[in-house]
From TrEMBL:
Gene3D superfamilies: Spore Coat Polysaccharide Biosynthesis Protein SpsA, Chain A (3.90.550.10). It comes from the Bacteria. The keyword Metal-binding does not apply. It comes from Hymenobacter gummosus. This is Glycosyltransferase family 2 protein. Belongs to the glycosyltransferase 2 family.
Amino acid sequence: MLYIVIPVFNRLAYTRACLDALRRQTNQQFRTVVVDDGSTDGTAEALARDYPEVTVLPGTGQLFWTAGVNLGLRYALGEGADRLMTMNNDVEAAPDFVARMLHWAARQPEALLGALELDIKTQQPVYGGEQFSWLTHRSRELLPLLAPPQQRGLHAVSYLPGRGLLIPARVVAAIGLFDEKRLPHYLADYDYTTVARRHGFPVYLNYDARLLTYPEESGQEQTRKQRTLRGYAEHLFGIRGGGNLRNFTHFALKNCPPLLLPTFLLNGYARRLGGYFLH
């Protein structure tokens, strides 16, 4: 059985839309677990009243993304899940999303799978996976390189985001859960899929499965919009900061080939220190 784990903190309207999209799935062979990490907007009451099919696990208010996901994954594994999925609440799955993920999961039982992301406003593809070079510190996005007839099936990528990430239970048995100690929020998903690939598990972007997303609503984008010294400090040092130097250092030390580590770190620090006001 597939278990879908969704960590939430407030933003009830997004959570409703996400859960309503899951209710419309053509394949209902899954169960949904929401980890409510101390929401103050009535999320717990609304879920209990309107979504009785959803298991809700309360958090402490200090779980953030990684520990929240891990709490849900532990519960799912305890219930006998053989496939797991992490999903953010600010996505809406296309009606055939689960069906198309399970289709490829059956054919690639050891693979981690992500989904093609479309902007919910324009319905245009915005993310189709990346192939990353440790040498140049650059990612090559696959989406612009693929002609429409090629935008189907599985494409190998270097890592995957955690919104709509399917993980076979055997991967968790081999490498454990997400690194909540060193990567409490950002980079935990990229780290996990990188570690899994290094252990021999394939990592693919499934172009047949679609997620509708809100690109402008991520915490990282909201911080960048501020363009203030306070926002800059949050970007570099805050637990939700997309340029968090501590998180980047942990990610690099865990995953970068040793010979490339010094230049990779210097490049990464320069990008984070100088990039905030350039984008």
